[in-house]
From TrEMBL, chains A, B:
One of its GO terms (cellular component) is plasma membrane. Residues 372-644 form the CSC1/OSCA1-like 7TM region domain. The lineage of its organism: Eukaryota, Viridiplantae, Streptophyta, Embryophyta, Tracheophyta. It is a multi-pass membrane protein. This is Uncharacterized protein.
Amino acid sequence: MATLEDICYSAAINLLSAIAFLFAFAMLRLQPVNDRVYFPKWYLKGIRGSPTHHGGFMKKFVNLDPRTYIRFLNWMPAALRMPEPELIEHAGLDSVVYIRIYLMGLKIFVPITFLAWAVLVPVNWTGGTLDKIKDLTFSDIDKLSISNIPENSIRFWAHASMSYVFTFWTFFVIYHEYKEVANMRLQFLAAESRRADHFTVLVRNVPADPDESVTDHVEHFFCVNHPEHYLLHQVVYNANKLADVVEAKKAMRNRLTYYQNKYDRNPSTRPTTKQIGGGQRGSKRPIIFSVLANISTRRKMQEELEREKVLSDANAVIPAAFVSFKSRWAAAVCAQTQQSSNPTMWLTERAPEPRDVYWSNLAIPYVEHTIRRFLMAVALFFLIFFFVIPIAFVQSLATIEGIEKVFPFLKHLIEADSIKSIVQGFLPGIALKIFLIILPTILMLMAKIEGFHSLSSLDRRAASKYHLFLLVNVFLGSIITGTALEQLKTFMKQSASEIPQTIGVSIPMRATFFITYIMVDGWSGIAAEVLRLVPLIIFHLKNTFLVKTEQDREQAMDPGCISFPISEPRIQLYFMLGFVYAAVTPLLLPFILVFFAFAYVIFRHQIINVYDQKYESGAAYWPDVHRRLIIGQLIAQMLLIGLLSTKGAEELTPFLIPLPVLTIWFHKLCKGRFESAFVKFPLQEAMVRDTLERATEPNLNLRTYLHDAYIHPIFKHDPSEKTETMIYDDEEDNPLVATKRSSKFVSDVSSGSGS
Amino acid sequence: MATLEDICYSAAINLLSAIAFLFAFAMLRLQPVNDRVYFPKWYLKGIRGSPTHHGGFMKKFVNLDPRTYIRFLNWMPAALRMPEPELIEHAGLDSVVYIRIYLMGLKIFVPITFLAWAVLVPVNWTGGTLDKIKDLTFSDIDKLSISNIPENSIRFWAHASMSYVFTFWTFFVIYHEYKEVANMRLQFLAAESRRADHFTVLVRNVPADPDESVTDHVEHFFCVNHPEHYLLHQVVYNANKLADVVEAKKAMRNRLTYYQNKYDRNPSTRPTTKQIGGGQRGSKRPIIFSVLANISTRRKMQEELEREKVLSDANAVIPAAFVSFKSRWAAAVCAQTQQSSNPTMWLTERAPEPRDVYWSNLAIPYVEHTIRRFLMAVALFFLIFFFVIPIAFVQSLATIEGIEKVFPFLKHLIEADSIKSIVQGFLPGIALKIFLIILPTILMLMAKIEGFHSLSSLDRRAASKYHLFLLVNVFLGSIITGTALEQLKTFMKQSASEIPQTIGVSIPMRATFFITYIMVDGWSGIAAEVLRLVPLIIFHLKNTFLVKTEQDREQAMDPGCISFPISEPRIQLYFMLGFVYAAVTPLLLPFILVFFAFAYVIFRHQIINVYDQKYESGAAYWPDVHRRLIIGQLIAQMLLIGLLSTKGAEELTPFLIPLPVLTIWFHKLCKGRFESAFVKFPLQEAMVRDTLERATEPNLNLRTYLHDAYIHPIFKHDPSEKTETMIYDDEEDNPLVATKRSSKFVSDVSSGSGS
């Protein structure tokens, strides 16, 4: 077990590396050339046009003002300064509520930390068991933990009672937080300006009708069953194939742009397409260029064909539609009611935001949906408990012998001692590392297969899966060493009362491991987040090779977004560690506090300056966050019961049993009280908004407003399309002379390539 | 273990007793004097007026026609003859679907029985393990069961595969049954003539408003939020106290009637109230009579006062209301949507039928509701697992010594040998017997405390609790001998994989016990049901002492009703036994088949001729029935896995594990597919009915139709009230002379007492 010095040493290293990241960030963000990496949000909002620079060429790339460097941490108070309503306006409710999770961590754990240090640390410190055992190595850390209390001691009552206090405090905080978020959501939905999804309902599983097309069937059904409220509807086309074509075309365009750029920068050496061959590098390219252009044109024609085919083909209309109503009230009614006597037909729900729709999944029939979910549940089980098997198999192949077999020519290279040791040390871990990196992608793919039809629900679903994975493989896996599969075997053979004991008994011993984990993953990891090293490099690469116009530069920016399915389950791990160790090893709590405070500031900065969310769900994920907090609490309570019963304090078990029962009841209470705010839209609110709108805008033409709100993005007028057309035109005509098409993009292209 | 002869002997006894019951029933039902006991339904329907008799006085009471006795079983085909649509019309959907449960039992188990006897019985019979073991006593029954198969035999694959076949067959039957019942319910709701609950929504948790009364608040809220649809509403009065007063008055009236009758039959000896005392029995009564009449009058005044107080007191209006709409569509919309942003306020749901409302529970606030449910869940846990503790305590008191202590004067009596042995044999069981008799009442009380607000939901809730109790204390309690508390201890100390083994291994050994159980409880018990011994006795007692008029005789009839919370969980026990033993001891299956067939005929007869349901919920309980079938299936599958793994066939476990997983998935599929038909009312159906009604009855005045549909029964015009007033009037005036009030009841009373 690590001593206090070890912990301090590790803390120092991690603090230093965090500070180094922060310092690097502070330096890099001041350089105008990185402005689009560290402040993309402002560009997307149109507030910043180009890096703030006055003066020479040098100043355009490097900040030479020494004063700005002195206050290198001044972004932190700046990040905290923006008031919440403005922040919601600026970054959306999803992001604001997301950083509230960190704030909630502080609200829960600051009082708990104080209480634990005031009550439990003295109780533990004076326990005196470890002083008596001379032959065991122990550290000051263990003297602060529950391990220092002798078996069967009356002192355990302190831990049991404090566990009640902690639980009730957590209940208090998360109840109020749930209430607050529910209010914020309702206010957000009500205060927002008019949005298409307020009036629209997504209808799935439209039954097939031999006499009518889907669009007629939908129209008739809603004209009959919502006669005074139905306004219009938009059918959904199965544009998956078209989307593939468009995707391929875009990839082609990128390559074209790259070569185009080369020549635009050096127009004098521009060869005609008739020049073929030759030793010069420059003269080889035109062939590639013209071949690419040909393919590109063919792709474009193919796309047009496919587009026409989809639009004219009745079979390409999938049995789903977006139905819009004359009022929010009618849309809320339709979304919440059952339409047909067969509950698997005419399924209605609130339409997601147009950006939020996941178009590929809209056509899945009901029974297929349940089968997919079932198969994915089975797959998740195997993924969690058996993922080590394929990895172990890959690892067994990825030995020196395995490599020599497959690549015999490498034999003399890797047999060299220095390389051999690197390979031997590196290879066994690499399969696991790669797996852990692609895991979120796998989970997202599983969520997509399950058939959810909005990006926000896909994110929530993937987060649930990832949380389970972390819970079993990181949390339990670190406590009971051994793979999840071995754990599963152990648990199947142990009784319901033994399992918490087995885990509980190892908990105090793993405290130092988790402290280190918090520092590495929580402190340094979060500091690395603010540095945005990968987007920084990619931006500069793109900027050098692809960017031609301001618009291209806009597209080269990668503001990124909060990766909810990855980061939220990780926060939950910290919450769980806090709950578990609050009564066992209070020393761990300050480390968690630092994580929450630090992450709060960093992510507040990021959502103000960087992230651009892909959709806005109105904090629809909060019920999931709440549920996982409850799961964390339950696990902590069960483990405490297990731990205490191994310490000869079984008489405390009946005293502690009500705790999980109360927690489950509390969860049900909160669910009943608040969850519907995240699922349903109350009629009263809808009616208030409708009445207000009728009074203020009596002449509003809702039909025009809604008529193409829910069109598949592939059919939308794409501004980059024209630019591309321009490129082809350039090919054939004179590149720098405007064509007859007098679109605004022409001038963009000209000015862009002229700069 | 019992031999085949034991089983045959027991079967013979039970068959004989069942036949004796049936014979007694056949004799008794032919006597005109019992007509109101065995055919009350027809009297309530107004089809039968009085026993069919022609001829003398004797024939009025006894059937002397010998021909009718010969065909003493002819009620059976008669019971089966009525077609289902007519039966629904006659007895209601609840009853018809209830007997479908028995029919479903036949559908499931007839093919399973054939298959099991065709495949598993030969496999077991030729297993030959028991032939080799000479020193153990075994019977032919065990040779038919899985016990006869040697350990580690390949024959177990037959049982595992058949278990798949049985499961899939059950899936097939219960899926189609669910579908059929859902269709029947929708048709029933749609085909029914206009009912108040189609247009009405029960609104609970109306928030308090300082400026408005509840009734104004409700009206304003629905006028604003359902402007084109709101019609009227009826507030609910807290009439619990009034109901008590009325109840007390009724009890008093019964006693009065009894004395009244005495004197009406012998008017010549009728004394005045001034005659006091005397040795004669007749002369003592007038005092009681006048005292009772005084109390009765006072009760009546008290009731009037209370009634006025309730109606005038604004605080007596509870925050709940029945809100009626102009169309079924609007009521369906309001019932299915969330009204206010606070989901614990303005809770709406489909109004139960007026008869079905449980008025006392309408006022419970949301949070109190969750607390009550939580407390009752805890109470149920203790009731199931710890009910033996108070019983053991009572038993320890109820020994000979205990009685002697409390009642010393009984000492010499109970010390007599013969009595002593009876007391000793009888007392220990009596506490348990009493507990089991009052258990359904306790469970119903718990359901009432939980705060459900319709009789049908109370019944369903009590049934769920009783099912759990039977599952733990009868099924598991019979397999693992020992109390539930001991079981709980065992299970806490055993691992997840050991529990099914522990139970599974005892299953084949308990087959004979369950066969006997089925014969006693299922065969004889059901035959006793048709005899209606208790209602028969009570009717004749009432008829002799209380009945004065035809109307009284009507009230003395106790048609009873299907006691869903008691009998449905018992059927589920038979289903579970069938599922569990289908693969283990197929010998048990024919006994279950006899039960299902016999019970089907008997209950079909009863719902045609006897039972009068208190309410009509439209088979709303079917999702519960389905869920419990799934629970039975899951338990059977787990136990088979446990049993096979103790038989050295662990390699079958992975083969069988998908079975419970599939079962859970099947349950989810059915739930999603059909459950909403039992919870929601689809808008399409509502719209069709509305349109039809508008076309056929354009001038319907819905307001008049609905205006007092949901009035508390205590405020309703009670026909018996007047009769009672008459009795008081009789007291003061001349009894046999009509008073000035010229109501139809006067003539009833006169003719009734004159006959």
